[in-house]
């Protein structure tokens, strides 16, 4: 019998290969008293300069292999290695306690590590891994321990390790490293980000995979499901090999769609776009052939900050996205804060139901000062491409009109200040509250476009918290009641010749795609890695068959019937 372990699928793909288990760096360091203090100081100084040299080399190879953004990790490593505070503390400890350099280095870097690791903020938690990586390198240099170079691997393996440090991942050669499995780490750890850039399948957070699998043992890893399987029988192994081959073929097939327009089989053009949370996400959008950004969740600019970002700070971020998208439509949503999205520097009033409370446009309409900083930044960014400004959580026509009036007020200010902006910038709204969906034909008299936010629309329509496991059985995008609200929204927009997109997760759902096409959705905005699959499927569907399917689905009584219809339809594609 084979054995299965479940971890976090952090980078898609399937691999079957021999395990290369990396031994943990358990370097034993004794507290040794020394008499020659100067000699110890030169040992630490030499080790730090060797470390900095290594990091320069790693930065250069990463720059060549993965580009500037990934190489930047080694700048932060270099900052740690050359931090005078760390070096001075080590030297002071050597002097005050007359101890050896390695012990002092371990002591000081451990303090920094623990300080970062104990912070609540995930950013700093992850920086602790950087401190550890740099510290290990310095200590190995002090002790003259060889630093394993993973770039020399010359047979096909899956690397198994406690964690993979950024410097280790940067050395991996895709030709031989077929995957990696680690005890710790999650989807946002460095190892995960690197794995996705290198397109190496990875399963992280497997807890004790370094002891579960033996060095040299052939095992399988599925980066999509997060499953790792050991003690493979011949037939299970063959099945994984088949899946790996199919995955590789599918990926190659999808690449063909990268530079194609999104079209149905009968030539109806649509837009397939991406949702992003920060300017750095744009790179992946372009790599995956995105035809625009359908949702930039601007709240991340506010959440990753210690103050409300200024007009200038926001303008810089928005302009960066506009420039990178080179004239393709970029829809930026104004601040959608409140609910579960909190700010460290602002206290929201305590409410019984924060998701139904003071949030998003309800907050910005109340805090015109904060709203205007954002709107001015957005208008200024509109001069650099094709921008859509979008308001979240609009519930009434009056709210939309009030928000739009503030845009007009900002435009007037900018005109007076002779600051450039696009006079015809589109101003639209999210449809994520049932009241807006039901009356979409009224809203579309005023809004230039809609984007359906199904993540919230579903939870508000079915009264099922999108976060609750207990009621997840109710949270069904394919519920015919949800389809009816989507249909009303699309018809309501088209009645006044406005376009309508979708930026909730449902837009990237393969089962939903034929139905959305059939109902007439114009733009589909999803995670960047789902775009090519959606474009490929779209190319196989005619509008006529999609419309017939949607009509049948709208006439059903409940979700299982819709699923049955869609699955039968997809089986023919
Ligand atoms: C896209 C949406 O917004 P968010 O997930 O940010 O609430 C939505 O509600 O569908
Ligand atoms: Mg929402």
Automatic annotation (TrEMBL):
Its EC number is 2.7.3.9. General (non sugar-specific) component of the phosphoenolpyruvate-dependent sugar phosphotransferase system (sugar PTS). This major carbohydrate active-transport system catalyzes the phosphorylation of incoming sugar substrates concomitantly with their translocation across the cell membrane. Enzyme I transfers the phosphoryl group from phosphoenolpyruvate (PEP) to the phosphoryl carrier protein (HPr). It catalyses: L-histidyl-[protein] + phosphoenolpyruvate = N(pros)-phospho-L-histidyl-[protein] + pyruvate. The active site is at 190 (tele-phosphohistidine intermediate), 503 (proton donor). Residues 251-541 form the PEP-utilising enzyme C-terminal domain. GO terms for cellular component: cytoplasm. GO terms for biological process: phosphoenolpyruvate-dependent sugar phosphotransferase system. It is an enzyme of class 2 (transferase). Belongs to the PEP-utilizing enzyme family. Residues 154-226 form the PEP-utilising enzyme mobile domain. It is found in: Cytoplasm. Keywords: Coiled coil, Cytoplasm, Kinase, Magnesium, Metal-binding, Phosphotransferase system, Pyruvate, Sugar transport, Transferase, Transport. It comes from the Bacteria. Its main location: cytoplasm. Residues 233-260 form a coiled coil. Its cofactor is Mg(2+). Mg(2+) binds at residues 432, 456. Signal peptide: none annotated. Phosphoenolpyruvate binds at residues 297, 333, 455-456, 466. This is Phosphoenolpyruvate-protein phosphotransferase. PANTHER family: PHOSPHOENOLPYRUVATE-PROTEIN PHOSPHOTRANSFERASE.
């Amino acid at each position: 019998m084979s054995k299965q372990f479940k971890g976090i699928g952090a980078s898609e793909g399937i691999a079957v290969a021999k395990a290369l288990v990396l031994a943990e760096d358990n370097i034993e360091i004794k507290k040794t008293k020394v008499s020659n203090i100067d000699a110890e100081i030169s040992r630490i100084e030499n080790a730090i300069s060797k470390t900095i040299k290594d990091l320069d080399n790693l930065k250069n190879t990463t720059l060549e292999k993965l580009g500037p953004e990934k190489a930047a990790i080694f700048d932060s490593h270099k900052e740690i290695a050359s931090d005078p505070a760390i070096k001075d503390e080590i030297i002071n400890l050597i002097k005050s306690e007359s101890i050896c350099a390695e012990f002092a280095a371990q002591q000081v870097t451990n303090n920094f590590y623990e300080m970062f690791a104990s912070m609540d903020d995930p950013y700093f938690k992850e920086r602790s891994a950087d401190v550890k990586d740099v510290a290990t390198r310095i200590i190995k240099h002090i002790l003259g321990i060889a630093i394993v170079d993973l770039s020399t691997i010359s047979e096909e393996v899956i690397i198994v390790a406690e964690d993979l440090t950024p410097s280790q991942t940067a050395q991996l050669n895709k030709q031989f490293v077929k995957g990696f499995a680690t005890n710790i780490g999650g989807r946002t750890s460095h190892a995960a980000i690197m794995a996705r850039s290198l397109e190496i399948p990875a399963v992280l957070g497997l807890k004790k995979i370094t002891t579960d699998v033996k060095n040299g043992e052939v095992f399988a890893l599925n980066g999509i499901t997060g499953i790792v399987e050991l003690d493979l029988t011949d037939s299970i192994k063959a099945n994984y090999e088949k899946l790996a081959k199919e995955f590789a073929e599918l990926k190659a097939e999808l690449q063909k769609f990268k530079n194609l327009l999104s079209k149905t089989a009968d030539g109806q053009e649509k837009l397939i776009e991406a949702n992003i949370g920060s300017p750095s996400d744009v790179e992946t959008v372009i790599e995956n052939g995105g035809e625009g950004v359908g949702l930039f969740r601007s709240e991340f600019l506010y959440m990753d900050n210690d103050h409300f970002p200024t007009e200038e700070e926001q303008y810089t971020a928005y302009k960066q996205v506009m420039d990178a998208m080179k004239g393709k439509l970029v829809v930026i949503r104004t601040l959608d804060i409140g609910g579960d999205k909190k700010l460290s520097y602002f206290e929201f009033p305590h409410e019984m139901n924060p998701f139904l409370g003071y949030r998003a446009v309800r907050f910005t309409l109340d805090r015109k000062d904060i709203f205007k900083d954002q709107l001015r930044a957005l208008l200024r960014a509109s001069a650099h491409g094709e921008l859509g400004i979008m308001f979240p959580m609009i519930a009434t026509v009056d709210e939309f009109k009030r928000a739009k009036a503030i845009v007009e007020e900002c435009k007037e200010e900018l005109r007076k200040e002779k600051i450039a902006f696009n006079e015809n910038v589109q101003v639209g709204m999210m449809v994520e509250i049932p009241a807006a969906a039901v009356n979409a034909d009224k809203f579309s008299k005023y809004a230039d476009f809609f984007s359906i936010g199904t993540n919230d629309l579903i939870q508000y329509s079915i009264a099922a918290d999108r976060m609750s496991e207990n009621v997840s059985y109710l949270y069904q995008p394919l519920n015919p009641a949800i389809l009816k609200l989507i249909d009303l929204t699309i018809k309501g927009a088209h009645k006044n010749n406005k376009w309508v997109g979708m930026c909730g997760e449902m837009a990237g759902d393969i089962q939903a795609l034929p139905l959305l096409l059939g109902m007439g959705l114009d733009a589909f905005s999803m995670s960047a890695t789902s775009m090519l699959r959606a474009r490929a499927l779209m190319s196989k569907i005619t509008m006529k068959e999609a419309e017939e399917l949607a009509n049948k689905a709208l006439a059903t009584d409940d979700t299982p019937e819709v699923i049955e219809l869609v699955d039968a339809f997809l089986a023919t594609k």
